[in-house]
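Milestone M4 deliverable, item 7.
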Amino acid sequence: MAQEVPSLSPQCKFFVVRKKRFFRMTVRPGWNYCGEHQPQIGTKDGKDEKRIPCPNDNKHTCYANKLQKHLTICNARQREVPPYIKYNVNAPVETSPLKQPLSEIPSTQIEQIINKVNLLFDTYLKDKIDTMPDREIHPAVMDEFLTEGRTESSLRHLRQASKLMHIMEDEGLVKDHTCYVELGAGKGHLSYFAWHAWCPAASGSSILLVERASLRHKRDNKIRNSSDNSNKVVNIVHKLSPELSNKKEMGSFENINNYSNKDDDCKTKSLQPANINKGSFRLRADLAHLILDLVPAVQKSESIVGFAKHLCGVATDFSLRCLASANTLPKTRGMLIATCCHHRCSSNGYVAHKHLTELGIDKREFNIMLGIVSWATCGDGRSRDKRDSGQRDLSRQRREEVGRRAKAVLDWGRVLYLKECGFDARLTYFIPDSVSPENLCIVAKKN
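Output delivered:
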């Protein structure tokens, strides 16, 4: 869809309806559109300027006469799989019942699951989940916490980061020569604080941030800036095999401050690893496909400690398998994972089906629980009341209580899995629910 723009504008005249603005790519002199949106076939110096869909990804186009060059630099080209990536290594594939909306499930069945959740919670968890006492803001977080102009939302995140760091230290998980692995790191705020607190040069410790998304404004960039400015950030990008070529979980291994490059323009292929244990590393990979013990930063460390703030849904299960796999387990000293978004768990990914089945909850009932857990954070409940007509007899407060209990039962199953793997594991409320309703975390360390 094209609309007129001022003649002096150098940008493309293609109007992006979704963003309600014109496409911001600049155009050639005399052209109205960029190469991507040029509607007609033009010629220049007798060469065909026709654009064709890219063979790697038909969502974008390229010039037909420059196809071969484009294929060598295309972001969607097949990439070589690094050794620490194996497709679905932490995500077992199995046939399981499909998840149904609660509105399609008879109210009698939902009531049965509610009764089972209440029975399991009262039997195994009631009055047995620790509540962490109030603590002062951690010194590593204090400067940002006291910064003027902080919104309440920002302060809540800082309080959570502070409490998680206190727990790590109280549980004896902070030691020298450790690789601290933040799972689902996002922009890396928690790792930023952890690096300043636990990774002085003499400690021999490092931070590894694992995140599947490519994010801007990453906080670990500040780690780089606070390090030796002569070192450059180097992205080691791997080509994917055909089976992974269209997936985001490919690996780029980003050494924030300890791969120095001899060539100032970063064009040389000679990478010199320097003091790898003292750095901060970002690994772009999906936790479902990560073999942690083959990651270079982990191989250089004596032990591993995993941590996460609000690791979403099934990503928690992928992380537990990753940290407790046969080859990684000897190095894993412990973990601290604040869970969230249990409604985004999956039947094939959840680690503790065996334990819940022994307690009378099969996979069909598990899928119903994935609907019930959303009640813990259901807002005013109006829209859910309309969808879940069979549960209108439950008050909002009662629904939230049942939802929170269901979330705790799912996390308790994960605790049982970790105990079976040789960890001393438990659940704890690490912050008040006034700070965040997602306030339950898993604490595990080697016996």
